[in-house]
Amino acid sequence: MIEQGNFFFLYVTLVLITLAVISIIIPLGGFFLKKWKGLAMGCVIQPLFIVLFTVLIIVGATVCWQYDLKKHENGAMVVLKKGYNDTLNNKGVNYWYLQDDGECFCDFGETGNSGLAFVLYGSMRFYDVIPMDSFRVCVDDKVVVKFDMEKRRATASEYEDTLEVVNVDWEKVDAFFQKQ
User: Fold this and answer.
1) Which of 61, 70, 92, 180 is spaced 20 to 30 A from 29 at the CA atom?
2) What confidence score (pLDDT) does residue 123 get?
3) Out of 61-70, 75-84, 112-121, which region has the weakest mean confidence (pLDDT)?
4) Rounded to the nearest 5 degrees, what angle is found at the Cα of 107, between the Cα atoms of 99 and 130?
């Protein structure tokens, strides 16, 4: 499994820390220009600067992240769907977006879980797509997709459960197996 969500939050946090350190220049610059009056004005402007740029950075990073996720969803060679009920009586739908570059994006869909951490990160994962032979691929050692190239049909299973194949882009599937 490729854990990419942790790095996203790490990058945003590091940028915000860097912004806070750089914002020290504002009161110092005010002091050098207008002495004590400039220092006082810089101390008032500094928190406003930090709040404004923090909001801009978080909104911008979230928009970029959502764009990247939509790109994964729209560029999938195979889309799989599975509805479930878990032990906590949560109902949900899992979507698996298998890419032709060997990556799989899994969206765990709507569940009974709530909270900002789950909404932003806990509902999605990235996995590797591993070709098993010339007509099967495996994702995370539990999802297997079998392709019938002649009849242009695909079947998928997660352990013993059957997954619904929502969409197959056969040109991407052919290109994937030709690369292997």
Assistant:
1) 61
2) 66
3) 112-121
4) 35
Long-range CB contacts (within 8 A, 24+) of 171-174: 172/77, 172/100, 173/77, 173/78, 173/100, 173/147, 173/149, 174/149
* Residue bearing the bigger pLDDT, 145 or 91: 145
Look at residues 72, 99, 120 and tell me which one is the last residue of a structural domain: 72
pLDDT at 7 over 80: no
Q: What are phi and psi of 67, to 5 degrees?
A: -60, -45
Tokens of 37: 């009056």
| pLDDT at residue number 129 | 87
For residues 143 and 67, give the distance between their C-alpha atoms in angstroms, rounded to a whole number. Answer: 26
Q: What is the pLDDT of residue 120?
A: 54
Start-to-end CA span in the chain (Å):
20
What pLDDT is stored for residue 117 in this prediction?
A: 46
* CA dihedral angle for residue 175, residue 1, residue 73, residue 150, rounded to 10 degrees: 30
Q: What type of residue is 84?
A: Y
Same structural domain for residues 47 and 67?
A: yes
Domains identified in the chain, total number: 2
Is 102 in the same domain as 123? yes
Q: Are residues 122 and 86 in the same domain?
A: yes
